[in-house]
Amino acid sequence: CPCCGFLPVASIVKTVNDVSNLRYLHCALCNTEWNLVRVKCVACDSTEGISYSELQGEAVKQPGAVRAETCDSCKSYLKIAYQEKGGVDPVADDLATLALDILVDEAGYSRAGPNLLLVPGG
Question: pTM here?
Answer without folding.
Answer: 0.87
